[in-house]
Amino acid sequence: MSWAKREAKALADTSLTGDALLAELEDYVRVHNPRLTDVRLERATATEEYDASTQPPRRWYLVSYLADDGEGYGIKP
User: Fold this and answer.
1) From 41's CA, which of 5, 7, 30, 52 has a CA 20 to 30 Å away?
2) In angstroms, rounded to a whole number, what is the distance separating the alpha carbons of residues 56 and 69?
3) Chain segment 26-37, per-residue pLDDT in tens
4) Where along the chain do its domains lie?
5) What is the 3-state secondary structure (H, E, C) of the chain?
């Protein structure tokens, strides 16, 4: 495996906390980066930005995660 540390923004349901919140943020990263074979969230920081166009409303988070591209070469930022 070739791991690389990345940062991104991710959306999550505003009612989630704890492990459920972290799981939803990891899922968001995976869905928006299908070339990644493994994603491990390290940190999530809530922003003041929201997406009220969905129900339930969702909040943007800045996330830091480790990811593997599945090819052993690492990920280009």
Assistant:
1) 52
2) 32
3) 999 999 999 888
4) 3-68
5) CCEEEEEEEEEEECCCCHHHHHHHHHHHHHHHCCCCCEEEEEEEEEEEEEECCCCCCEEEEEEEEEEECCCCCCCCC
From residue 64, alpha-carbon distances to 19, 55, 59 in Å are 16, 26, 16
Q: Position 12: which residue type?
A: A
Cβ contacts of 25 within 8 Å, gap of 6 or more: 10, 12, 41, 44, 61, 63
- For residue 49, give every residue at least 6 positions away whose Cβ sits within 8 Å of its Cβ, in sequence order, or none: 59, 60
d(CA 73, CA 54): 37
